[in-house]
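Annotated sample (chain length 225).
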Amino acid sequence: MNELLSLGTAATATAEMAALSLLLAFGLAQAVAAVYVWTFRGMSYSQGLVHAIVIGSIIACMLMLAVGDSIAAGLGIAGGLSIVRFRTALRDPRDMMFVFAALGSGIASGLGGHRVAIFGTGMFCLAVFTLTLTEFGSQRRFDGLLRFQLPVASDEAGVMALLRKHTRFVALVTLREVAQGQAMEHAYQVRLGDPKDRATLVRELERLPGIQDVSLLLQEPTVEL
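Output written by the structure step:
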């Protein structure tokens, strides 16, 4: 009877520890996902990725709890996971790091390293906030591709003077005939010193006589396209 009671007590403690680990993994993954949402920059935002960050941590914790100290169980789970084909491609390496951080918090929680999971997740979130607020590694060059059509008989001196006025760097990329040889399509790579000059440059180019189809394709918004 005493052995049976002690077994029940151990099972209850194990169940409590498992529940605590799963709840901790869920909470830490929520924090990682919230930091991802708050610091996201770009166009390809995916709610499914945010959900995957949270769910992945719980699954990792559950697997670690199931394995425990059993080598055979670990090999079996590894073999089972090798059958699954994960074909989702993450365009931004930063997204992959968030998924990896959530999995790390889940693994640490499942192995009983609750302090490591808490402090590690906190350090990760602090590092992300610091890098985002300081804009570490960014280069504000505002590169873009400027396209417009100009009649063959038009003087390009006024166009080049306007480009040099609003840009720090201008380089001709392509020049080809359009409208059955009546006009030339110009494509320039430009570097703007101030992002406020974008609209001003386009407006002043459109005021020039004979110029048509002015468009400025910026590099930053089209990186993910």
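Annotation: Residues 1-13, 221-225 have pLDDT under 50 and may be disordered.
Annotation: The longest strand covers residues 169-178.
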